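2024-03-11 09:14:02 DEBUG pipeline.ingest accepted 1 chain
2024-03-11 09:14:02 DEBUG pipeline.ingest length=420
2024-03-11 09:14:03 DEBUG pipeline.predict start
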Amino acid sequence: MDGQPELIRRRVLDLVPQRATEFPVVLLQGPRAVGKSTALRILAAADHAPCIDLDDPIVADDALANPSSFLPSAPRVYLDEHQRAPVLLDAIKARLNRDGRPGQFVLAGSTSVNALPAGTQALTGRLHRLPVYPLSQREVEGHEGGVLAHLFDAPESLLVARSQTERDEYVNRVVVGGYPQALRSPNEPARQRWFADYLTQTILRDLPALEAIRRPEAVRRLLSLVAASTGQIATLGSLAEGAGVQPRTAQTYLDVLEQTFIIHRLQPWTRVPTSRTFRKPKLHLVDSGLAAHLLRLTSDKMATRAPEALTAFGGLLESFVVAEILKEASWLDDTASVGYWRTHEGVEVDLIVERLDGAVVAFEIKSAQRLKDGDLAALRALRDRIGPDFRAGVVLHTGPRAANPEDRLFTLPIDQLWSP
């Protein structure tokens, strides 16, 4: 896993030209250092179009001083780190008021446009968001396709799967994660130094630009607490107490961490609402490697199989797998919603992906190699609740074989998420 090639082709390179035929503005948004700028430069070069980097302070100052005349006259303009000069969103809106044809702007940013002053209102109805996550394992391996489409339309086609992946490889993939620079690091100490620098720069540079972060050390503690409880339902009071801040401050910090794509709130899936269903989000770090770094967990520590290491691995594996499926869902044209489902009786499904036509695929994630019948219980309950729209329920596991133990319920090795 270490020492990956310098450039891995991102799936978003194929999506942008398609979406640019439908919307005047396409926005690539995601964490820093995931490859948005590289993708933007590749796309701009292919279009022979201008690519403006607002991370350059001189360029950003010019944009802020002269927003109405800053944007070049070109069929398509590529604009990187748009949040450095949010006033340009109004200039883009003014241009689109005169000419609303699709494909005029492709933006990239490390801050949600929702967090910018009047950002969303400026381009309402004219902007399409494309998430850019850390690299998926399928992108790392250079494989096309994916499993979601098969699970919706022909889940039985995956029953031929046979895994050769050992636990140590799963551990390594989880602790490395998907940031390109972490993947390129020559060894684990170098990767840990990169993660440490990344966190410091993010907390000291990006977060204060959105909110008055008076206690950066509290943000780091809060992030570590989120990493330790990754995949669990958020309890604001305990997070605030652990971070040493008031609940209102903790909420503000969590909002900013989500707006800068460091954490992700997985919302409850509400297709089958009931008073007996949880309504609070689950918290995940966007990248399992960053979460492992915050917990000071390395491949060697995981290999000890100490109880605390095994417990931590279960949570990190869930976040890792959820992230892989979210990445794949973002590539599909017809994803309607994603979420989790849990009742007050403790019946829980880790992840649900719903298609625009109402079809549903649900996932349970287990770190075990051997499964018990009880591992199917939550998927069985959801299947019986929603009926024919339930296309497949899948228990993803670290064992070697796929199976179809009963109607529309499947077990599948986790590595099928990136196998050819």
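2024-03-11 09:14:41 DEBUG pipeline.report The two ends are 17 Å apart (CA to CA).
2024-03-11 09:14:41 DEBUG pipeline.predict end
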